[in-house]
């Protein structure tokens, strides 16, 4: 999450890329992420309320875990490096598969949440910024970044991840596109929701593709790091039903919403709840896409 990065949206919302070279610009809610100072502030924002974040965020589609098992070799006893675990949504799956996990988490509250949640499990939590820390360990069988990699300086992070992996081991990075949902399965609710966002001056700005779905840009980043081969991408489509309480709780975790003044934030969330309850009968189905990138560490 917020850890070595966030655990979510790319921002969880759309996923963007922040690089020192600026070769790929981050697109979060349709706009560019500001400078490094703002990026770090946004990363820290996820540390404020781990319980609320964990309760509001959906998990990941089962296909992600299947790929980790079938392609990346996730199994009992495997050593996994996790970057930006947040509240441990992916961590829980890794531990459930029998892995031994070393997780790098930026936020102190999130780090404490992880230690308490998984007490007695084979999890080591390193409270640090992945951009600046040098993990003491290497020789990992798998590296995982669940909705977090976009918060990092990729020119630093990707080579560092590569050096931490065994030759032939995999990096798995994924994002769920929440803010823009699935652009190929737009719904009447989503069209109405966009009108609400525009009314609150949170429209998509210049538009464009959510960052996580910019396959060519991300594939180029992985290839350009010089550490990986067999780089691949898969879009995993799934749906989640929400009532008004669940959907407003989800949107309340996004930094574009938490950044609003309290009165504006309450008004936005109230309008979303009214839209669900009054115009759509109290429940909506959101169509999401989780974008999974896999990159294999070069054997040489």
Quote the beta fraction.
15-25%
Total helical elements? 12
User: Largest sheet, described in full?
Assistant: 7 strands, mixed
CATH classification, class level? Alpha Beta
Q: What count of structural domains?
A: 1
Shape: globular
Q: Spans of 5+ residues with little confidence (pLDDT < 50)?
A: 1-35, 205-209
CATH superfamily: Vaccinia Virus protein VP39
Strand order of the largest sheet: 5-4-3-6-7-9-8
Helix content: 25-40%
CATH architecture: 3-Layer(aba) Sandwich
Class from helix and strand fractions: alpha/beta
Mean pLDDT: 82
CATH topology: Rossmann fold
Could you tell me how far the N terminus lies from the C terminus, measured between alpha carbons in angstroms?
Answer: 32 Å
Q: What string gives the helices and strands in order? A: HEEHHHEHEHEEHEHHEHHHE
| Rg | 18 Å
Total strands: the figure is 9
Structure description:
- The chain has 300 residues and is of the alpha/beta class.
- The chain is built from twelve helices and nine strands.
- The strands form two sheets. Strands 5-4-3-6-7-9-8 form a seven-stranded mixed beta sheet, sandwiched between helices. It has a two-stranded antiparallel sheet with strand order 1-2.
- Helix 3 packs across helix 10, helix 8 runs antiparallel to helix 12 and helix 10 runs antiparallel to helix 12.
- The chain is globular and about 60 Å long.
- Keywords: Methyltransferase, S-adenosyl-L-methionine, Transferase.
- Belongs to the methyltransferase superfamily.
Task: Provide the descriptors you would attach to this structure in a database record.
alpha/beta, seven-stranded mixed β-sheet, disordered N terminus, rRNA_Ade_methylase_Trfase_N
